[in-house]
Amino acid sequence: MSHRSRIWLPIVVLYGLFFYWYTDFGGPVTEQEISQLAESMRANGSDEAYIDYITTFFREDTGRQFLMVNNIDANDSPPSMPGMPADADAEALMAVYMEHMIPELFKRACHPVIVGAAVYDAIDVMGISDAESWSDAALFRYRSRRALLEIISSPAFRGPHDYKIAALDKTVAYPIETSLYIGDLRLLLGLFLLIIGLLLQLWLGGKTPERK
Fold first, then answer.
1. C-alpha closest to that of 168 among 89, 55, 103, 100
2. Comparing C-alpha atoms, which of 109, 95, 99 is closest to residue 141?
3. Dihedral of the CA atoms 9, 10, 11, 16 (nearest 10)?
């Protein structure tokens, strides 16, 4: 096998495996999956109007990845929650929720993209009330709407989600499908592996003895 093959074959295989894991090839969510979600939400006590609202989101599935935009305002005086100290703050309650969510996200190739604390009140507010003050913002990548459906339809989701609700004074979360997303890990990893491959090729080429 040539130097070039030894360099590029493992890189192509590695990237192919990552691309396959990171991309949902299953197509849009099926009506059966949506019906199962609706039944799960009814069992958890959700009202029919909210169930209709959420299931419409899944019925309009394109099969693509999406980003969830989250504006968050932490509760300065959260209620007492089971298993937590009486003086537990919003950060401690949110940690309970994220302890459940992070593994569920990662195993479905979903992950945070941006997480940060607000450094000032809203600079521009128009057409919405009580939107001047936020404590944090976060952007999460979901491999597909199916990945989100699997997470929120699990019976294990309900308990941790109550801690998130308790931790927040207000929040706005909405999904977007990107027309420009230069932070896509498929692009970043592809560029990184390309650079590594070219450097290895240059290095090994320089070590090859000259033929006489």
1. 89
2. 109
3. 90
Look up tokens 């996200």; give the residue.
Answer: 105
pTM of the full structure: 0.90
Mean pLDDT of 1-13: 88
Buried b (16+ CB within 10 A) or exposed e, 27-55: ebbeeebbeebbebbeeeeeeeeebeebb
CA 56 – CA 149 distance, rounded (Å): 12
Residue 43 structure tokens: 């069992």
Q: What is the DSSP letter of 94?
A: H
- pLDDT confidence of residue 198: 94
Residue 155 pLDDT = 86
At 202, the amino acid letter reads L
Would you state the structure tokens that stand for residue 190, as one six-digit string?
């592809």
Q: In the structure, how many helices (H) and strands (E) does the chain have?
A: 7, 4
Instruction: Using CA atoms of 142, 43, 32, 152 in order, give the dihedral in degrees to the nearest 10.
Output: 10
Phi first, then psi: what are they for 134, rounded to 5°? -140, 145
For 3-27+63-207, give the CATH class.
Answer: alpha beta
Q: Is the pLDDT of residue 207 over 70?
A: no
